[in-house]
Automatic annotation (TrEMBL):
DUF1330 domain span: 2-92
Tree of life domain: Bacteria
Gene3D superfamilies in the record: 3.30.70.100
Pfam family, one: DUF1330
Origin species: Palleronia salina
Protein name per its UniProtKB record: Uncharacterized conserved protein, DUF1330 family
Amino acid sequence: MPALWIAHVKVSDDAAYGEYARRATTAIAEHGGVFIARGGRYVQLEGPDRPRNVVARFPSVEAAEACNRSDAYQEAMSYAKGAAERELSIVEIDE
């Protein structure tokens, strides 16, 4: 079943996080991920405000997890560490 990769982010270093985003885009695509939402308008209803919200659709939970563990994504993450506060979840789509 397909899955969504959902990230809520508050960026503190635009340059470093921009490099993360550039590299992560490639890693996500290599694992079948397609962006549905990337930034843009949002309404915060509950929980901590994270003004950057990203949703990518993957073929499966396993594909999304494999992306997260991949060398390419972990290299991208080295730019995000210290450059943002983040939450990341993978949620299976009930179709």
